[in-house]
Amino acid sequence: MNISRRSFIKAAGIMTGYAVLSMNIAKEAVADVMGFVARRQESVYAADANPEVYKYRKSQNNPMITKIYDPENGFLHDGPCGHESHELLHTHYIDRSEKLKALKEKGIELNI
């Protein structure tokens, strides 16, 4: 490969320009993200300072939640720690590692 000095300087200048440009784009992207985080943080603190924004700071004080758990007419009438609410609202862990090992031993590749 035979490159003249002028072509080398031209290519080096173009690559340097792209490197500087990409650094500026990256800096602007980081600045935009940090600005968004700052605005979000300010809005959260402003909402916390104003009790009229969120009337129900605790879920147990929310009238919709108390209606769901109402002992007489509620959907989950057996209470927040009852059997029905446990079955509907909680997840259970199932160990599938042995089945995964068996599939890998057969040569099956999984994208997990």
Task: Give an account of the 3D structure.
This protein is mostly helical. The protein has two domains: 1-54; 56-112, no CATH class. It has four helices and no strands. The radius of gyration is 30 Å and the shape is flat. The two termini are 45 Å apart. The mean pLDDT is 85.
Gist?
The chain has 112 residues and is an all-alpha fold. The protein has helices at residues 5-49, 63-68, 83-89, 97-105.
Number of helices: 4
Q: Strand content of the residues, in percent? A: under 5%
- Using only C-alpha atoms, the radius of gyration works out to 30 Å
Distance between the termini: 45 Å
Low-confidence stretches: none
Give the overall shape, derived from the CA principal axes: flat
Lay out the secondary structure.
Elements: H1 5-49, H2 63-68, H3 83-89, H4 97-105
Keywords:
112 residues; mainly alpha; 2 domains
